[in-house]
Every structure is written in C-alpha cells, then in structure tokens.
Amino acid sequence: MQTRRKTLAALPVLAALSAVPFLLSSLPVQAQPQAWPSRPLRIVVGFTAGGPVDLVARIVAPRLAVPLGQPVIVENRPGADANIAMEVVARASPDGHTLLLIQPGVAINPPLYGKVPFDPIKDFAPVSLIGESPNIVAVHNGLPANTMQELLVLARAKKGGLFYGATSSPTHLATELLNTLAGIQTVRVPFKGAPPALTALMSGEVQIVISSIGTLLPIARAGKVRALAVTSAKRSAAAPDLPTVQEAGVPGFVATTWYGLAATGGTPRPVIDRLNAELRKVLADPEVRSQLAGQGIDEPAPGTPEQLGALIRSELVKWEKVVRASGAGIN
Q1: Which domains does the chain have, with CATH numbers?
Q2: Residue 204 DSSP one-character state
Q3: Which residues contact 321 (CB under 8 A, 6 or more apart)?
Q4: Which of 9, 53, 108, 176 is positioned for an S-S bond with 326, CB 3.0–4.6 A?
Q5: pTM of the entire predicted model
C-alpha cells in the first residue's frame, strides 16, 4: 500500500518531466549571426563606365573578391552627380554587401543641391580612403591658349564666352573655384561622366574640362586635347612637366579628387573592420599600386574608418564655403 502511494505521488513529477522536451522545443530560438559575406558584393559607382571613379572601382573590386570568397561586382548608377548611386547605398540593407566608391561629391552635393536624398554622415559607414589624385586643366586644341596664363587672359577677355564641361560635381566646383580665384567667367555644360565630356572637349563643343589626370593625360599625350596644368598643391609624378594652377598665378587653388570605400550606415563594425583590413592588403599589392598610379594616385593612402569620416566632415565645410562664394547651385 505504501509503495503504491509513493508511485501515485511521483506521477505529477514524471508528467512534468516528460513535458520538458516539448516545452523546450516551443521556446523561441535566437537566430545565429550569418557568416559574412554570404553572397556577392557590389560596389556602386555614380558615374559612367570608363571614368576615373569607375576605373578605381574596377582596380579594387576583383582583388577584394579573392580574400572575401565572393564576387565583387561594379555597378554603374550614373546621374545627378552621383546622388542616385549614393541614395542606392544609403537605402540598402546595412549588411555589408552593398558598398560605395565614395568621392568628394558626398560632401559637395549637399551644399550644391541644397537637398539630397542622403545624409553624408549618418547614411554611410566609412571603410577607408583609397587615395588622392590631381585633376588636369585641359583645353580644346583649337583654343589659342598654350599655357594656363594664356587661358586666364583669354577667359577674362571673353567674359563668359568659354564653355567648360562638368564631368561631376567635384569638377563643377573645381572650375567654379577657379572662376572665383582667378576672376574669370566660364559657362558650365553638364555631362554624366568624364567620357562624354572629353568627347565634347575633343570636338570643340566645350573649350575647357577639368578632370582626373588618369583619364585626361592619355588623350593629351595622344595630341587630342591640350593639357595646361594640374590642380594639386604640387606637381604630379605622373606629369612632372605640367605646372600647378598655383604656379600659373592663382594662389590658393587646390582641387584634387579623392577616392574611398564606404558601406551603408549601420553596417556592423566587425564587417567594416574586415573590409578595412582586406582593402589595406589590396592597396599594398605592387600591381595595384602601379594601376592606381596610372590613375594619378601616386601613393595609395589607406587609413582608418574614422580618418575617412573626418575627411568627409572637413570637405563639407570646405565646399560649402566655395558654393557660397561662387554662387553655384543646382535646384
């Protein structure tokens, strides 16, 4: 009788124990973080294929693919001075699979346009600077100006009679900065990227173009356009015979193009750190350095995400002043 009572008393405990597996299986299971990258990556470029930003992206992309174990595809989304491309990345999932080949437009476009579909600070997670390249001031072969000084004299005489091809917002404001500092007037003709602007320069549709040394120097050496000066603070190793605009008598004029890599804002820091580490290795490769030198990037300049973020902030301040001083604006 006593044994039966003990057995009956134990039944509720046994029933409870038998329910444990069911109860455990019904509890919500916390999702495990997915390994990154889990699919192909894309580097979004805001300009047409063949331009300087596109070419830098195509140098970097295949080298990043190897250590990441996934294809890295360059996606061209030209238009609106790269605002379209920047919005694509700003609105992408912050999972590290969508990247932006970032350039000065990220800091120039907000003051230039007044309103843009992205926040240059919050919507992007900087990865690293890639490097900096001077631009070249080039003119149509038929223009009677063989030096930068002669171009300035001619522009002052014509007072708005010369047209310049704007390949991007950085080259747009670089030319407006030249107008302001040199006391000249030239008229902007917008293009979606460097290739169509250079075609217009060669045909004489426009008389002046400021664009990347990597895209302008080859056609200048081929005799298709005339290169007059570089826009950097000192002469470029890629074209040591070309004087700087400052040497031509425009003190304070510096308008280079820098390139970097960024992800969508909110991308996890471990992903940013991995991208930064792999990009640094890519930029240390001698073949990559040689190819970047062909684009006017004499020395790659990888750095921390924080350093690229600080550069973007300083560029916002610089170009906002240029927009105000020049009266440039796109509405």
Answers
A1: 41-132+257-326 (3.40.190.150), 135-230 (3.40.190.10)
A2: T
A3: none
A4: 176
A5: 0.82
